[in-house]
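Hi, here's the filled form for the chain we discussed.

Project: internal
Contact: R.S.
Residues: 245
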Amino acid sequence: MKKKHIITSVLSLALLFSSCGKYLDKYPDNRMELHTPEDAAKFLVSAYPDAHAAYLLEMYSDNSDEHDYTSWSAISPFQEQAYRWSDISEIREQETPQQLWDAHYTAITVCNEVLKHVAGVSNKDAYASQVAEAKLCRAYSMFQLANVFCQAYAPETAASDYGLPYPTEPEEHPGRTLHHRGTLEALYKRIEQDLTEGLQDINSANYGKPKYHFTAQAAHAFAARFYLYARQYAKAIEHADAALG
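And the returned structure, exactly as it came back:
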């Protein structure tokens, strides 16, 4: 009888540890590992920033007016501060400079995770469309950040105007790692490099829902805007024509 209890206890422990092993093999949250091009494609859904500068820039622009009605007031301190071009201390609302910074650098680190994974695989050709999308998304986020946090691009001053950090490796705390800002000229060259390389293979992208990704048409539309801002008007027209088909 004693021997029977020992055997039962041993089997129970073996079953327990087996179950624990299977449980611990799974992530405790919704994180994912990259093993295949399909994994990379799913991960790149997060490479599109969940914030846009439209509201902030609208408040900064001359499209906004102040009316001296005592019964009216700004919707929030953020709106008031943005309208007056004051330092924005209200960071709880969406589309504040702080939120835009975090959202775009988080999207960039997703791109860099995919590119890092592809650099370590042997079947790189299988990831051509994912690499193209990652580079286009990285270029887009950096371009958006440049429009908010840098001077407008001017060829005569770009070599001396401040740029922004352009991470090429994944960051544990996106946007919080100290990097050299460089110049606006260097920043635009990096954006153009990613944009050009991304355009080369984006035609091979096969999306389940193309409207939520960089298709070739969307990439050319982005390129048209980039070259317009960079004051390279012939290239802007070329890519605008390509976007319109």
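Let me know if anything looks off before we file it.
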